[in-house]
Amino acid sequence: MKWIEAKVVIDFDDRQLAVDLIANLFHEFGLQGVVIEDPEIDPEEDWGEDAVDLPEQNAVIGYFREDDKAAKRCRILEQKLQRLEKAIGIKSRIFYSQMDEADWSEAWKSYFWPEKIGAAIVVKPTWREYSRSAGEIVLEIDPGMAFGTGTHPTTTLCIEMIASYLAKGDSFLDVGTGSGILMIAAAKLGAAKLVGIDNDEEAVKIAHRNMLQNSIESEIFKITTGNLVDGVDEQFDLAVANISSAAVLELLDSISDVLTQKGIFICAGIVEKNKIDVVQKMKSLGFEIIDTRAKEDWVVVAGRIRVSR
Description:
Layout: E1 2-11, H1 15-27, E2 35-37, E3 59-65, H2 70-88, E4 91-100, H3 101-107, E5 115-117, E6 121-125, E7 137-141, H4 153-165, E8 171-175, H5 181-188, E9 193-198, H6 201-213, E10 221-225, E11 236-242, H7 245-251, E12 259-271, H8 275-284, E13 287-295, E14 298-305
Parallel strand pairs: 6-7, 8-9, 8-11, 9-10, 11-12
Antiparallel strand pairs: 1-3, 1-4, 2-3, 5-6, 12-14, 13-14
Main location: cytoplasm
Subcellular location: Cytoplasm
Pfam families: PrmA
């Protein structure tokens, strides 16, 4: 498998707005992760020896599989960038390069550093050194070909939500597992049973490997290939889906079937403009919205079924 690296170099005064909007374009293709290049961001002081050279320009980089749809994706991306320039004035240039799978899986590693989430959780790449402080929970992650590094706002918000609503001994379902990062967080926060589902067989293998890397006992977790919750015949105290707005809206039709009576559903991958659609559908299906959190134009919503079943 080969990959196409699409690097969008930005020329706009409001750097953060431009990065957010262009990253959103990539996420509309189903990419859950992008690389952000920022000349003004230095690596953390303690990790300076491993630091890479700073980029010369602001850029957002996404990776497309080189398949029969690749050319169409590139054309659509270019059209969307042109619309952004006309509507807001964000000027950009796009550069493409072809990468082998091995090169793709290594390319972004120089951008992935330990990331602290909240007061006590740290997401650490397996290839980085980190000195754990007392009371910290460290999640060891090697995403490989899967997405889920802990650096994206939706992942951060999901982990914060899990920390808020998971009780020790709860059962946990992760829809769209990716690297397994949310399952690992749930396990280390006390979940007694964990099930993960992803439609990508490679992601399932990576998530399984990451669970074992974090010393999660194989007896308490299962990760399978599947579409949303098709084939799931158990119920869970807490279910999380960090996918996309469209996939969340589809999932809502069946998610209550896999929740316990007081089960909580946390959904993410939702851009701010789509929040109202998700919230309205949740309410129409009998969900009580118990929490919403936002970061960098991304929203996470938590709800609990409030009607008797």
